[in-house]
Amino acid sequence: MKPRLLEIRKGVLEKNDQLAEGLRSRFHAAGTFTLNWVSSPGSGKTALLESLLTAAISRGTAAAALVGDCATDNDARRLERSGAPVRQIVTESMCHLEADMIAEYLDGWRLADLDLLVIENVGNLVCPTAYDLGEDTRVALLSVTEGEDKPAKYPQPVS
Predict the structure, then answer these.
(1) Arithmetic mean of pLDDT, 71-92
(2) Which of 66, 88, 116, 138 could make a disulfide contact with 76, Cβ separation 3.0–4.6 Å?
(3) What does the pLDDT average to over 2-8?
(4) Contacts of 20 (CB under 8 A, 6+ apart)
């Protein structure tokens, strides 16, 4: 009798994906549009989000933010200046947020009262892109270190 090879595959992120789908259903049922922002450290993500939240609040949009960081609450304190409610998620060196973290930090917020929920993911472009957080849209902010005009400003002769 010839042996049969049975291949079983199960997604490594299956539990996270199931939780994320539950979050997405909650967000949609509440009418809350959710953005998951990812980018490299220093790309300007927090500065742009502070401006976005300030503008949203000034226009009467009910907005809030969840902020992921490995060790500090620096970005959360900056986003609080917008007037939006902000909650910090310290990942303790984990390089990304996961759906269960989002669910935990939503406790006490009435999603139906929020038009917009912004998730500022941990500053890293490797891990965060793999984890679904139930967002409607994932936004990646990219920047060129020191500006895109530097090659023209500081040309090097070709030899």
Answers:
(1) 96
(2) 88
(3) 73
(4) 99, 131, 132, 133, 134
Report yes or no: 30 and 117 within 8 Å, Cβ to Cβ: no
pTM listed for this prediction = 0.84
Is 159 exposed, middle or buried, given 0-12, 13-18 or 19+ CB atoms closer than 10 A? exposed
Q: What is the dihedral of CA 110, 94, 67, 77, to 10 degrees?
A: 130
Question: Which residue do the tokens 């200046």 mark?
Answer: 81
pLDDT tens by residue, 89-107: 999 988 899 999 999 999 9
- The burial of 99, by beta-carbon neighbours within 10 Å (0-12 exposed, 13-18 middle, 19 or more buried), is given as buried
Q: Does residue 3 register a pLDDT over 70? A: yes
Instruction: Please check whether residue 79 is in contact with residue 50, taking contact to mean a CB–CB distance below 8 angstroms.
Output: yes
Integer Cα distance of 34 and 49 in angstroms: 13
Model confidence at 65, pLDDT cuts 50, 70, 90, reads very high
Quick one: which of 64, 105, 71, 66 has its CA closest to 90? Answer: 71
Q: Are 64 and 70 in contact (CB under 8 A)?
A: no
